[in-house]
Amino acid sequence: MVTDRREFLIGGGRVLLIASAAASGALKYVLAGAAEQAPGYVLDDHWWAMTIDIDRCIGCGNCVRACKAENDVPREPFFFRTWVERYHLPEGDVDRPVVDSPDGGFDGFKELYRPGDGSKNFYVPKLCNHCAHSPCVQVCPVGATFDSPDGVVLVDKTYCLGCRYCVQACPYGCRFIDPRTRTVDKCTFCYHRITKGLTTACCEVCPTDARVLGDLKNPSDRIHAFLREHTIHVLKPQMATGAKVYYADLDGSVR
Amino acid sequence: MGVDTALLSQVEGFMYPNEVELQWSVLIVLYPFITGLVAGAFILASLERVFKVEEVRPTYRLSLLTALAFLLVAPLPLQLHLGHPERSFEMYLTPHTTSAMAMFGFVYLWYLMVVLIVEIWLDYRRDIVLQARSQTGVLQWVYRAMALGSDNISPRSLAIDDRVGRFITIVGIPSAFLLHGYVGFIFGSVKANPWWSTPLMPVVFLFSAMVSGIALVLLLYMLVSWVRRTAIDMRCLDTVARYLFYAFVIDFSLEMLDLVHRIYVADESFKSLDFMVKTRLFGSQILLQIIIGTLLPLALLALTQLARLSDRARKGLYATAGVLTMVGIFAMRWNVVIGGQLFSKSFLGYTVYKMDFATREGLLPAILLMVLPFVILAVLIRLLPPWPESAAHRESA
Fold first, then answer.
1. A137, B83, B117, B248: most buried, per Cβ within 10 A?
2. Between chains, do A179 and B24 touch, taking CB under 8 Å as contact?
3. What domains appear along chain B, each with residue ranges and CATH number?
4. DSSP per position, A139-187
C-alpha cells in the first residue's frame, strides 16, 4: 500500500486541526481553578499566617477536638489536621527529647513529669504551615493541591488522585489520606470560616490565646507586633519551605 | 488501607500521628522494580543493535519482548494504588508542570509508543507480513492488524526498516535512561525524606535497573533454551554475564559511595537511619540486599571471570547469580520505598509496615502483577517468535 506525501500531510493536518480545536475548548475549564469565594472577600487583600506562643500552651487539647469536630476529621488516631506534642527534655538534653502525643493530644495529657524534677517540659501544637514554597504543592501531579492567593494551601478533593506523593513531600507530617474519600486532607486554616471574617476553630477555642490567626496584609493586625516582640522560629527552617506558622520561644530541640 | 489501631503498639519512639500508617505499599515497590527491568532489558538489546556487541544477538529480540511485556504492566501497580484511579487521566490533560510525578505518563507513553513498539514492529515487520500472508483464520487477522497495512518486504524496504530501527534504538537508549533515571528522581527529589533525598538516586536506580534487566534476560534465555531443548549459545551467555558483572560493579560502587557518604557526613538524620538499618531493615537491607543479593552474586560472577570453568559449571553459576541478583534488586527497591517510610521525619521513632494479603494493595495482587508480565511475554513469544532462526533476515540485510 502506498500513501503519497500529499495525502499524508492533508490527513495529518486534519487531525491536528481537530485536536487543537478540542484543546482550546477545554482551556476555560483548566483556567477555572479559583479558590473558594465568599461574598465581599477579596483574595488579594489577605495573607494568612498563624502565631503559636509555646509558653502559653497548656496542652488541654481543645484545639484538636474543635478541629476534628469543625472539619469532620476522622476520629481515628492516624488522622489529624492539628495535633499537640509534649516535649520532655531530661536534664535539658537538646539532642534527645522524649516526645509523646497520645491520640494527637485529643484528650489532653496525663501528668508524667513534675515541676522541679530537673527536666524541661512544654507543649508544641502542630498544623499545616501553609508554606509559601510548599513541597506538597510542588509535587502534586495534577495541581489538586494549590496555593490560594491569600496564602493558604488548599486541596481540591474533586481532583485529587490519592497518589500520596504530597504526604511524602510534607516535612512536617501534616497530611493524611481520608479513608472515606480516598483523597488527601489537611488543615485549611478553616477556610470556610476565615473567608467569612471568623477565626479558625482551633484559635477560637484556645483558652490561653496560645494560637492566634493573623493576616500579614492587614497593617493593624496584632500579628505584626507579636512577630516583632518575640523570639520567632519556624519548624525545620533548613527545609526552606517558607512556613507561615510562627512559633514564639520555640526550643531548639523541636523538630 | 483500613484503620488498624493495633499499629500504634508497634511504634517505637515518637512518630508524627499522621505518619504511623505507611502511605506507599508493596505495589509502589513493584513500580521501580518493573520499570527497572524494562530499562535494563532494553539497554541489553541496544548493546547488540547500537554498540555492535554481536555475541548477544540471540537475546536481542527476547530482550525487546521482555521489555515490552514488563512495560505494559508497569502502570498497573500505580493505578491499583491510587485512591481515584479513574482520575489518573487528568495527569495527561492537566499535568502540573512542577511535579516530577506528572511527567510519568509522558515519559511512559514516549517510551512505549515511540521507542519500544516502533522498534519491535520494525524488527518484526518482515515476519509479521509473512505470517499475514501464510496464516489462516483468526491469526491471519491478528497478523494483518499488526502489519498495519504494510505488505512491502522488498530488500530495499527492509533496509529502510533496519536504518530507522537503528535510529530508534539510538533514541531509545537515552529514553531508557530517562525512564528509569526519572523514577529515581521521583524519590531522590523528596527533600523531606533524607533516606530518599540524594542526587545519586537516579544514577543508582539506573544502574540497578541495568543489573536487574540483564539478569532477567539472562535467566529467561536459559529458561527458554531449556524449554525448547535448544543449545545455549555459551558465547552469548558469557557476554551477557560479563555485562551483568560490569553493571553490577558500578551499581554496587555507587550504593557504597552513598553509604560511605552518609556515614561520614552523619547529618541530623544519620542516627535515626543508622538505627533503622541495624534493626528494622537489617534483614532486608544488610542480609538480603547487600550480602545475599549483591556480594554473593558479585563473587560468583567474579569467579566465572577469573577461573576456567566448564560450560555446565558456568551455567550453574550464572543461573544462581541471576536469581540472587533479582532478589537483591527487589530488596533494594523494597528498602528504598518501604524503608523510607519506617522512620519518623522527626527522627525520633519508627513504625512498621503491615502487608495485607488479599486486599487491593496486598501481597496477592503484588504476586499477580509479577506473574502477569510473564504471561504477556509468553503470548508475545507465541505471536512474535524471538528465536535466531526466525531473525534470519537480519543476517541477509
1. B248
2. no
3. 26-245+357-387 (1.20.1630)
4. H-SSS-EEE-TTS-EEE-TTT-----HHHHH-TT---EEETTTTEEE--
